[in-house]
Amino acid sequence: MALDEVVVGIGGAAGDGIASAGDTLALALARQGLKLYAYNSYQSVIRGGHIWLRLRIANEQPLSPGNVLNCLVALNQESLDRHLPEIQPGGLALFNTHRVKRVPEAPDGVQLCPVPVPDLTEVYTKLQVIQNTVLIGALYALLDLPFEGVESVLESTFARKGQKVVDLNVGAAKAGYEYAKANFRTMENNLKPGQDKRFAVMTGNEAFGLGAVAAGVRMYIAYPMTPASGILHWMAAHGEKLGICVRQPEDEIAVMNMTIGANHAGVRAMCGTSGGGFALMTEAVGMAGMIETPMVCVEVQRAGPSTGVPTKTEQGDLFQAKGAGQGDYPKLIVAPRNVYECFETIKEVFNLADKYQIPVIVLSDLLLSEHHETVDPDRFDFESPGIDRGELITEPEENGQPYYRYKVTETGVSPRAIPGVPGYMHVAATDEHDEDGVLISDVYTDPTRRKKMMEKRMRKMEYLRKELPPPQLEGPEDADVTLVGWGSTWGVIKEAIQALKEDGITANQVQIKYLVPFHGKEVAEILSRSKKVIVVENNYDGQFARLLRSETLIKPDGHIRKYDGEPFEPKHIVAGVKKILAGEEEIVRCLSEEPGWRTEHPYPV
Amino acid sequence: MALDEVVVGIGGAAGDGIASAGDTLALALARQGLKLYAYNSYQSVIRGGHIWLRLRIANEQPLSPGNVLNCLVALNQESLDRHLPEIQPGGLALFNTHRVKRVPEAPDGVQLCPVPVPDLTEVYTKLQVIQNTVLIGALYALLDLPFEGVESVLESTFARKGQKVVDLNVGAAKAGYEYAKANFRTMENNLKPGQDKRFAVMTGNEAFGLGAVAAGVRMYIAYPMTPASGILHWMAAHGEKLGICVRQPEDEIAVMNMTIGANHAGVRAMCGTSGGGFALMTEAVGMAGMIETPMVCVEVQRAGPSTGVPTKTEQGDLFQAKGAGQGDYPKLIVAPRNVYECFETIKEVFNLADKYQIPVIVLSDLLLSEHHETVDPDRFDFESPGIDRGELITEPEENGQPYYRYKVTETGVSPRAIPGVPGYMHVAATDEHDEDGVLISDVYTDPTRRKKMMEKRMRKMEYLRKELPPPQLEGPEDADVTLVGWGSTWGVIKEAIQALKEDGITANQVQIKYLVPFHGKEVAEILSRSKKVIVVENNYDGQFARLLRSETLIKPDGHIRKYDGEPFEPKHIVAGVKKILAGEEEIVRCLSEEPGWRTEHPYPV
Amino acid sequence: MATATVELKPKDYKSNVPPDWCPGCGDFGVLNALQRACADLKIPPHEVVVVSGIGCSSNLPGFFKAYGLHGLHGRPIPVATGIKLANKDLTVIATGGDGDGYGIGLSHFIHGIRRNVDLTYIVMNNQIYGLTTGQVSPTSLAGMQTKSTPSGNVEEPINPLMLALAAGCDFVARGFSGDTKHLAELYKQAIQHRGFALVDVFSPCVTFNKYNTYDWFRQRIVKLEEKGHDPTDFVAAMQEARKMGDGEVPIGVFYRNPNPRPPLDERDPVLASGPALVKRPMGITNAEGRKLIEELM
Amino acid sequence: MATATVELKPKDYKSNVPPDWCPGCGDFGVLNALQRACADLKIPPHEVVVVSGIGCSSNLPGFFKAYGLHGLHGRPIPVATGIKLANKDLTVIATGGDGDGYGIGLSHFIHGIRRNVDLTYIVMNNQIYGLTTGQVSPTSLAGMQTKSTPSGNVEEPINPLMLALAAGCDFVARGFSGDTKHLAELYKQAIQHRGFALVDVFSPCVTFNKYNTYDWFRQRIVKLEEKGHDPTDFVAAMQEARKMGDGEVPIGVFYRNPNPRPPLDERDPVLASGPALVKRPMGITNAEGRKLIEELM
Ligand SMILES: Cc1ncc(C[n+]2csc(CCOP(=O)(O)OP(=O)(O)O)c2C)c(N)n1
Ligand SMILES: Cc1ncc(C[n+]2csc(CCOP(=O)(O)OP(=O)(O)O)c2C)c(N)n1
Ligand code: SF4
Ligand code: SF4
Ligand SMILES: [Mg+2]
Ligand SMILES: [Mg+2]
Fold first, then answer.
1. Total number of domains constituting chain D
2. Which residue of A418, B107, C101, D61 shows the fewest CB atoms closer than 10 Å?
């Protein structure tokens, strides 16, 4: 049975160089026109632990890590022990005989491929990570892929280290390739390398960075925090060339206040963090709402609460974003649904932030931000829709009118002058203020004025809602069940729907991108036509389901949730839908339960 | 027409000593067995502005500031100009002829009572605030109340300053009293002073302090912030005597972390703040949830967003409290409904915090925390229900069993040992951890264990919900309309219901105290029997209405909201209910619109 | 820092909102001196941004005619930093109270010095929390009775000048709001200093601080320039800075580094190479964008 | 601080979780020295609480057998303060990294010194953010290339010892994790000091900091005690503290105030008058409560 897609798992410890091995492999495949989705399950430790990177490879773009394991590249004994039992019949396990001493029994139909790495490259004695290169070479052979893919990547990766290093690496890969060709069976598959169009391998975080560049961002400000640090690193690496000032201040409070200051002065400035850092920013997010300064923050969620599982994925910060800061103020919360949308969203929300003069929270998560996938470079348009600064006053204009920074208007938006423009001086105050900016909290308060100003600000929300594209139903109208998700789970739900179809269950999908303001009416209308509604989300408490109920008054028929740190696989959703449709459970709590995920508690009390 | 209750308004500028004049008056009335409710509308300025203190006086306890004005004590020209038009027929306006130069025309049936203060007391030339004492004496006369009330209060207030100061003050009051008796008509009323039982005059903040004492709190930690500072001041004033260590650290982040540290070490420690300070605390609230350390924080809401109107009331921080910190963790959010409940709540929630080892957020607001009312001292029971520390290990016990701090149990609660106890050493970590406290985020992660630990913690919520008393319907079952409110609006809604009855509309009330966890089923059941449901809340966006919809799937028929800074008066709710029942509006946005509230913008551009 | 060609007077920096401070409050002097300093330096009002926190003192921008941002308690420095980095052509002045700057905002103060952005930071140090009606502050003297320390403060005050010096601040001065002429001179030097400059100002709170009154200061204040202090001598600066509480309260320029660190806008390669960020064109072409994506191919 | 009657060995402070630091990480030395110091001082493990933030270094409590609280990034000091004030009989040690303590947590550090609670604060200063895989820290030297400063750090490092001295810290020391014997001696003195004590430790990050390596330090380190430094001399302490970066890296006790401020538990009237708060009875009687209400009648 020739496979249409192949899932490769690379297992090892932190420090074994899995990430760069994965990068090499992914790039090689992409250069040969294959599509892939890669997800790395790692721990919050710099050395040791168990790292588990899965690459799903296919001719058409995969949208999730997939359900199964076909090929294992075990960089150490533990990885072989853990994952060997998971390999599907027809699959194989590659490992370095020098690192793996004890070979467990392979499942039926699984080929064991021991590679004597030290015999294949003498570099190994000095540089053990070369095993990765050898094994990738071997894998390439066993997948029956042309070696040129690996070669070209090793060449470009090591080019700046000189031809010797290139040769050494290419040689190691080639040795693995040839050893495998000579000693093992290749795996039958339908992968079609050699397609003309080259794709890029991109993470959500890189797409956010590219989006920021397209949006004309001139400052990126962040305090390091997994899984948002990828944006910082990309920006820092490119800032100098692109004229983007990248700053790492003392804490997230400073980050948010600086970002607001910069936006206030008229540049586009962005910041990024994860949940714990965002908690510290919430007070200042409210300031942006009150002084009507645009601001864009990317909040990359990870598994909480508190420090939680910092290297694991979750969609657990929706309520935090929604409840950010005291009181009511207009804000936009957007959850991009895939890597392309990470890019598009940043361009879009900067325009909206400028137009409505509001803070924007972009909710990503570790899965979306850190997974790699192949993307079509032609789908990245840096020039359109173009930069729209809204009603921004950057030059003096002689109209003889006094300037009211917070002029009450129909839409709630008032023309905004930036510091430095003659004739438009004003104070932007976090105290309640009148149209001209003068405090109405201080020597005088006036309920009428206060009410007016609250309504002015909050009115923006209605106009904003109307401007945002409402959610769409994807899939057949008359399906048996509608799956409702938000943000990053778009792809895995889509794949689950495909799998359900094969099992005779038709499903369609509503994937929410704009969470606040919410298209309550439109979503209610869609869902009112659904036979069954199931909400899929990556948290314990059903934060989105609560929002959905509140905004649509629709009680979903079931919930599929996951909060064990690992992302959904299509099979979890498929099983959940079946259980719910069978009336077995209302809330299905998924678990990644393959033996490879289990760890014995290593330190008995 | 003799009045059953009298609303006295005292108006002046910050620095005119209105608060202490109000205190004197309130105490005098209370000592004479009268009941009162006093609310001070003030600005965020130390000198100047317009301060407006209303005291509502009756034989039975008033529950709100009331709807009207009967007596005005104008300490300056502005106050007379503003409020004279509001006085009801039969009412009067007292003022000092030395401060008020221009007497506007009085409404029909309103008695103008100019008092030549400088002629009545020679102290005035040196100490202008003595005018307050004179005018209160005069007011007493005009309300036909026995002078002894004022006298006794002045005596006790000034006792520590010596007999001369007492005499001087009593003399001034007496002069005012006699001048008024001689020159003005007394106001007919049915107030019955001289009742035997003495009540105390208490604010919500003082009740929180007393509750903390009853709960055995040993540390109070806070950073100053209106309107929570009253708790800090009361605690600081009493801490030394009561053995409560009161600390004011560098910021609210330190406050929350210190409070958690202290609770972790086994004392009961409380902290307090308002919305902006709470925003800074949210990260650490999540820590308490994760390490399962009990914590109690009083969040006294004020009008937001951001700095907002810091001296004005609002119920705008519900979402902030609910969304505090990233991820899902168990917490309790409680909104006491009156001053007695402020006291009771603290005793109650410390027991619950200890029992469930969770953080508790007590949501008060400026209205509840700062208004004064008469309370029955016998209703304050310091000894019952008694202090229950839950499963707390403070002494070593030889049972030969290893200790698992986070043992998985049916209820999710695991016995908690405090530092210092031999044999129970463990690490409390904000990273996800196993039953023994060892990290499962670090060298190893295990989805099964992670899931188990999330479920262990979150299970507490179900047990907690079952333990909390569900909301009750107050009033007739078959009423025309049910008013749903939360927290501090209990009293004003109750009075509105009374007024509606007089207008032929029967209403009943559900006033929610426990917001998280929420009694969704029970509330839905109550409301499903209601003819109409109207939600009353003191914010713009209907935060509570959103929670209610989410938890009950009930769409209220109408909303009455107020966010102009001033609290609801019964009349706002009455008018709102009528409009909604008449189908005129779905969301009624109330406004305090008497001329006295209006201020011309004093600084034209 | 641009200078205007027209004559400017202090009243050109006066907004139409009269200060709402208590009569006698020290902050009036701070405001007046700042208006005078800006006029003397001829900085066009629209090129000045005054950024404050929350507190009585932080109300200052409302009374000063310029651009203003009256932000959050404790956060003027990061906000001012964001503004200055975005538009280095502006004169950015951060201001606030002792609670604001040395309490909740202390970390930004020290790290602000470390970053060395070209800001002037003016602290109205009244040794009390004024706006919240009189609680202890990090500069309140030990023993001081306040609403939160009714039986006396049991903590020692921090010394902001020592901290600034230890943090590497290249311009450290202290003024007294009772001497606005002297204060205005300090401001002028601070504004002209390229880099982070601190002017701590003793600005008495006449309502809540009954200890550190005008009289208290007048009896103790000594001008550094009159006693021959050399402001380029770091060790001498430290020694003078230590004196608070010893009966003598020195004011003036404590330290002016003769070899000051270059400000961040000269060190950061992006800021240094070109006009103010806000004046640069935005966005890139598809061709340029494509190059960035090609790095991933 | 209670002392045990039985003999205690460093291994009695070893938890059953082996450290997960990178092989060669400086934090091993910090851990070993602390275990040795506690053993030498005979503090029963259950009377020790080690409170940390978040970072590689902050994982320490997991490897140390005692009570531990592994809290939030930057917040060990306030948490430790709460614990110590609640139970003054415990030996409370706050610990964490340079990012944790001098970056996000800086304000607590300075105010912790001001409050002078009897804590020992150990900072594992590796001049980098380790756990987040190598970004610039507030103690990173200028020019250092990191993931967030790929073309070199454009800010100057702060000097934690200078700051501690300026803030009034009565015990200021620096150690090197490559010399655990010396380090253990510093810890012992710090723990025995009544009041806030700082031990900054250069603890190399072998994975991400390629500048400040063991070798780098070994070439520069000088022991203060060997060069005759008088730790009671504040000015000399300042002068030694300034030296970082000058080629010489002094370690040892920089300052020990001969007249130290009494710790907060002796100054606060509530803490001073009676046993540890946690050991006092809870609640009051109705009669006592009534008296409090009567104040309002
Ligand atoms: C996060 C936060 N915490 C607390 C407050 C309340 N608050 C307002 S002003 C102030 C202190 C003011 O003291 P200071 O900064 O010294 O200024 P001053 O009023 O003395 O000039 C405080 C604590 C706030 N606004 N925000
Ligand atoms: C509020 C918050 N911001 C950011 C982080 C991410 N974070 C974890 S450890 C760390 C820095 C660690 O550096 P340091 O304190 O020097 O410790 P080291 O790892 O170097 O020992 C950061 C920024 C966090 N956990 N919490
Ligand atoms: S309270 Fe003090 S600081 Fe505030 S305005 Fe009045 S005198 Fe000035
Ligand atoms: S990354 Fe650095 S600090 Fe962290 S464990 Fe490794 S060597 Fe130590
Ligand atoms: Mg102050
Ligand atoms: Mg570090």
1. 1
2. B107
